[in-house]
Design brief:
Oligomer: single chain
Radius of gyration: 32 Å
Largest sheet: 7 strands, mixed
Shape: elongated
Number of strands: 9
Order of helices and strands: HHHHEEHHHHHHHHEHEHHEEHEHEE
Strand content: 5-15%
Structural class: alpha+beta
Mean pLDDT: 86
């Protein structure tokens, strides 16, 4: 009997894996929604089997629903993530969560019906429905945690296992399914009084299922896929943010700190971040340079060509500056056509070189792409020589900006020295 049960489990795992991987493999032609629907429709059967359907194996009593179907679904969600990304993988995760809570809500309403027997002796077992409802809720919450955990763990292990895709897959499955077995058994023990040997048997079965699915995955890679195309190493923070929808929060936060026209940081961020940036650099004994950048004769551009063209000019200039900045540089739009650039750990001479590069880049670009030439003037100050407060630095840089404009514009002015165009 035990041998027959084992062979049947292996056949179920092979069938499940073959069909689901065929859907994942053909998602470009059939659509990834087919794969997701196939995952979704199995959840009720998994929970039902895990509640009442158990078989005997040499190492204990196990449920095929938990061993084959649930383990397979969790690993399939991981494979969907590996093959696509967190944005796609979160769809079945949240779809299962919402769908199963909807099912429970509908059952709560359905159980209040006055039912009639269509066939003699065939009335619904409400007690079983209530029991299933609790296990559905608990199992759904566990699945939600498991699905996010297995993906985050997969990326976390990327730094340790590198390109060993199969090893990452195996370890992730074993760890998360161990956690899941403990969590679901506690609920099952509470609801139905399942004995503790069910926990041990179920754990061994899930570890075995992880090995079987890993072997099937290896065979798939050997005959139908290329391992290099499955390798993914994505930033862990970004993955977690996407899976938990926090990237929407970050997007909103980013939008609230950016100038809507140019995409650079706006004045409020300069006022908020500037003093802290300056303090950190002075505290570490590093220089900090501040550049005030102003578009020459911008009012005339607006008057002659219109405000829409003026907006396009500002966007193009902002884009050019962004492309020429270092990761330690912070660009702000502080007024109409005026920008401030804070450059951490950048001494005066290097800041002058950067300013010249920006000026020449804008000059060349405008000569080619604008209907008339557009230039910028730049004033520079540097801490601590030109001040130890943001207001002092800005005042000195702004004064030098106007000296640059009085010298004929399209030039950089720093520390009283004139860099002409």
């Amino acid at each position: 009997m035990a041998l027959t049960n084992t062979l049947l489990l292996l056949a179920q795992a092979a069938l499940y894996f073959a069909v689901m991987m065929a859907l994942l493999h053909g998602r470009r032609a059939a659509g990834v929604g087919v794969f997701m629907c196939a995952i979704g429709v199995m959840h009720f059967l998994e929970t039902y089997l895990a509640s009442v359907f158990y078989i005997q194996l040499p190492f204990g009593i196990i449920s095929p629903g938990s061993t084959v179907l649930f383990s397979g679904k969790l690993l399939m969600i991981l494979l969907l993530y590996i093959r696509e990304d967190a944005l796609v993988a979160r769809q079945p995760i949240y779809g299962l969560l919402i769908g199963n809570f909807l099912m429970v809500g509908l059952v709560i309403l359905l159980r209040n019906h006055d039912t009639v027997a269509v066939s003699a002796g065939r009335l619904p077992d409400i007690a079983f429905v209530d029991e299933m409802g609790f296990l559905m809720v608990w199992g759904t919450l566990l699945l939600f945690v498991d699905a996010i955990l297995i993906i985050v763990l997969y990326e976390f292990l990327g730094d340790r296992f590198g390109r060993h895709l199969v090893l990452r897959f195996l370890v992730c499955g074993a760890l998360v399914l161990s956690f899941d077995q403990a969590g679901f058994f506690l609920a099952l023990h509470y609801v139905s009084g399942a004995p503790w040997n069910v926990f041990l048997g179920g754990w061994v079965a899930k570890m075995s299922a992880t090995i079987v699915y890993t072997v099937l995955f290896v065979l798939y890679l050997k005959y139908f896929g290329e391992e290099d195309r499955w390798i993914s190493n994505r930033p862990l923070r970004d993955v977690f943010a996407t899976l938990t929808y926090r990237e929407r929060y970050y997007d909103l936060l980013e939008a609230s700190t950016r100038d809507h026209l140019t995409g650079v940081l706006h004045r409020s961020q300069y006022d908020e971040q500037g003093p802290a940036i300056l303090k950190a650099n002075l505290g570490d004994g590093r220089p900090l340079s501040l550049l005030v950048i102003d578009v020459d004769h911008f009012k005339q551009v607006n008057d002659r060509l219109g405000h829409q063209v003026g907006d396009e000019v500002l966007k193009a200039i902002a884009r050019l500056m962004i492309e020429n900045l270092r990761s330690e540089d912070h660009l702000y739009r502080i007024g109409g056509e005026e920008f401030v650039l804070l450059c951490e750990a950048l001494p005066l001479e290097a800041a002058k070189s950067l300013a010249e590069r920006l000026r020449k880049s804008i000059d060349r670009f405008s000569s080619i792409y604008f209907s008339e030439k557009v230039t910028v003037s730049i004033g520079i100050s540097s801490a601590p020589a030109d001040g130890r407060s943001l207001s002092e630095l800005f005042r000195n840089a702004d004064r030098r900006l106007y000296e640059a404009k009085s010298q004929g514009r399209n030039r950089v002015y720093a520390s009283g020295l004139d860099d002409t165009a």
